[in-house]
Specification:
Layout (H helix, E strand, L loop, with lengths): L4 H23 L4
Amino acid sequence: GEPGAKTLWLGLQRVMDFAAGLRYARQIGAV
Protein backbone atom coordinates (compact mmCIF):
# COMPACT_ATOMS: atom_id res chain seq x y z
CA GLY A 1 0.00 0.00 0.00
CA GLU A 2 1.00 3.61 -0.34
CA PRO A 3 2.31 5.58 2.66
CA GLY A 4 -0.20 7.58 4.66
CA ALA A 5 -0.46 11.34 4.49
CA LYS A 6 1.01 11.61 7.98
CA THR A 7 4.10 9.66 6.96
CA LEU A 8 4.55 11.82 3.88
CA TRP A 9 4.12 15.00 5.94
CA LEU A 10 6.67 13.87 8.55
CA GLY A 11 9.12 12.99 5.78
CA LEU A 12 8.62 16.39 4.16
CA GLN A 13 9.22 18.17 7.46
CA ARG A 14 12.49 16.24 7.94
CA VAL A 15 13.65 17.21 4.45
CA MET A 16 12.76 20.86 5.07
CA ASP A 17 14.58 20.81 8.42
CA PHE A 18 17.64 19.27 6.77
CA ALA A 19 17.61 21.88 4.00
CA ALA A 20 17.29 24.70 6.54
CA GLY A 21 20.17 23.28 8.58
CA LEU A 22 22.34 23.03 5.47
CA ARG A 23 21.59 26.62 4.54
CA TYR A 24 22.42 27.78 8.08
CA ALA A 25 25.67 25.79 8.07
CA ARG A 26 26.69 27.48 4.82
CA GLN A 27 25.94 30.91 6.30
CA ILE A 28 28.31 30.33 9.23
CA GLY A 29 30.92 28.88 6.88
CA ALA A 30 30.82 25.33 8.20
CA VAL A 31 30.27 23.84 4.74
